Amino acid sequence: MLHLTSIETIIVFSISFRAMDWLFAPFEVAFVQRALWGGLLVSCVCALAGTWVVVRGMAFLGDAMSHGMLPGVAVAALLGGNLILGAAISCAAMAFGVSMLGRSKRFAPDTAIGLLFVGMLAAGVIIVSRSQSFAVDLTGFLFGDVLAVRSGDLLYLGVALVIALVVAVLGHRAFVASTFDPRKAHTLGLHPKAAQVALIGLVTLAIVASFHVVGTLLVFGLLIAPPAAAMYWSDRIPVVMVLAALIGAVSTAVGLLISWHAQTAAGATIAAVAVGSFFLSAIIAALRDRFGARRMGAASVAALAALPLVGCGSGESAVVEETPHGFVAGAEEMAETQSRLIVADAGTGEMRVVDLLTEKVAPIDAFAVKAGSAQTPSAGTAPGAVQLAGDGRFGFVSSGGRLSIVDSGAWTVDHGDHRHYYSAPIRAVGSGETSVGGLSGAGRSSAAPGASGATEPGDAGGPSGAPGSSGAVVSAHSDPVVVAVVSDVGETMVFDRAALGDGVVSEPRRIDGIAVPYAERLIVAGDAGRVEVRGRDGAAGEVQPATCPDPQGQAVTRRGVVFGCADGAIVVAQRDGSFVTEKIPYPAPPADRATAFTHRPGSTTLTALGGRNGVWTLDIRKKTWTLTPIADAVAVNTAGEGSSLLVLTRDGVLHGLDPVTGTETAHLALVPGPVADHAAIQVDPDRAYINDVRARTVHEIAYNDNLRVARTFPLDIAPSLMVETGL
């Protein structure tokens, strides 16, 4: 008998624990759990339909219909509709065409299927190619996005499974009879033509339900492979369906596990595992037939099918000693960016949070900072003036010299090689609990017109150095530890970001100067033009050799922190463990300098208003300034290097300008002019958002598709101020 020492026992237990952690750690994440449930439901639907596809030799039809979904999905996305509905309509059109053309006696049915297959696929590709805005979505259309399955999707899949089960049960006799002898089926009154229509409908249902998981190109694998593999182990239709569902479930679980650890595409990995199960079954069946080990194969399949249930039968819970990677208490990790807009009415201080994925608008009435209410402004403060800044999660609104904070409940944590996306409840963190510094009136004036309304994470302008401050916030920047909120009096309030996430607002540390968190430090630009690298506690640190006279405007990019200066800009970056500064001077002394930067978060191309007759572009990578002439510009932004400049002019026209030549590439009469001063353009990797104060609307613009209006968000307040979060 084998006896283990204590050390050997500990080693064995440690290895077993690590193996269990390797197996189950991915499924502790909420979006992976939803993906698993979605895959299990799809596996059951595909088993019911796919079994008949295999038995009746309809594989080519299944493949053609899966590819024929693309035009419907593309059109639905183009019109902003439901993708599943678009896929269903496209599949229905494909099925109808196959049924009609299949009646012709001039050619075989597979000819009609092939022609419709190519025609529908070509139509889908043409639609996609004509709209540049699909560039990001195309991968999801073709290969699925199982990790983006939502709770609502699971409900739809559950309904689809119930419908498929009802059709499979009620039509079983007709399907069997028409498969083996259509004439006898007709004699028995089983209506083989109706059965054929019902069967095509069942296949359509399975394909539409599955495309979100594995995409239009790979859905065929999940529809065919598990039933084909199950055919090696039974010749009874009900048993084949059950085995196919089990094999599909195993393929989903194993595919998600491999995808998590190997960083591969989840949908494609699931489809590959499903196809692999067919070849594995074929090999085992061949060995069984050769050596007579008939029970060996069935036992293997049963063991494989039971894999997802391992550990569920134990009465004791596994001991988890370490917090799962990426876990955040009180938040749910998501599969994609949770983009939201915080909008505020500058006149009343009322705020709303717009979820750009669900299109739901959440009011924050209890948090509203009413203009001129409750707070008594100090001397030099504009009564009731409301300003808004955002750091990518929190919104900071100032009114009457007081600061209030709202948590949008959406943010991204970037670890360099991967990202985590989080969603949490929307809530007010603090209301008027903190005073904005420098309320004596001896501070600075606010940023350029429109700057506060165009604030982005890491964007908005800074102080101007002139008397007449309004005691308003002009920008907010954060890292995982601190949030730095800059006021127009040249003071920065540094908050504990973890405490804000817990709903606690403590008195902030105050730093004289513009402070921006970067590389676990605070980069501070002061009145005298001195730039320092300090610790997060704000203590005096390393003074940089380059100076920044009259700092106004700041941003955080992939290449470092940018400060706008009277003579250009400086970039402070960390290289090889040390901090360096670079000066990017203006090409000539400007008549109107840049005072507030806007850009897509992280981008190295910044924009700014250059007075009323032009816009500035600052390319950090090329170290160049470019002034593009355009009259009466009120807001500007860009998606990054090589992308068009998006400029809104006072007459309400949105212009797309070539960043090199300044030539107009597109224009759109968007807002009835004249445009109010609170004009804002927010830009993310997919869309731009522009506020229409008078119409109480926010427009979503597909800037890569000739400035097409993709969606509009009507509101019950005037969206004077706007920031985007979740990025």
Biggest pleated sheet: 4 strands, antiparallel
User: So what's the overall shape?
Assistant: elongated
Distance between the termini: 60 Å
Strands in their spatial order, largest beta sheet: 4-3-2-34
Short structural summary:
By secondary structure, the protein is of the alpha+beta class. The protein has 15 helices and 34 strands.
SSE layout and pairing:
Elements: H1 6-24, H2 30-55, H3 59-67, H4 70-78, H5 83-101, H6 109-130, H7 138-143, H8 151-170, H9 172-180, H10 182-187, H11 192-230, H12 237-262, H13 266-291, H14 294-305, E1 332-334, E2 340-344, E3 351-355, E4 361-363, E5 386-390, E6 394-399, E7 402-407, E8 410-414, E9 419-423, E10 427-435, E11 473-478, E12 482-487, E13 491-496, H15 497-501, E14 509-512, E15 514-518, E16 521-525, E17 531-534, E18 542-543, E19 554-557, E20 560-565, E21 568-575, E22 578-585, E23 605-609, E24 614-619, E25 624-629, E26 633-638, E27 645-649, E28 653-657, E29 664-669, E30 681-683, E31 688-692, E32 697-702, E33 708-714, E34 721-725
Antiparallel strand pairs: 1-9, 2-3, 2-34, 3-4, 5-6, 6-7, 7-10, 8-9, 11-12, 12-13, 13-14, 15-16, 16-17, 17-18, 19-20, 20-21, 21-22, 23-24, 24-25, 26-27, 27-28, 28-29, 30-31, 31-32, 32-33
Helix pairs in contact: 2-8, 2-11, 2-12, 3-6, 3-11, 4-5, 4-6, 5-6, 5-11, 8-11, 9-11, 11-12, 11-13, 12-13, 13-14
Keywords:
four-stranded antiparallel beta sheet, 15 helices, elongated
Account of the protein in words:
With 727 residues, the chain is α+β, with helices and mostly antiparallel strands. A four-stranded antiparallel beta sheet has the order 4-3-2-34, with no helix packed on it. The chain is elongated, with a radius of gyration of 30 Å. The model is unreliable at 303-322, 366-384 and 438-468 (pLDDT under 50).
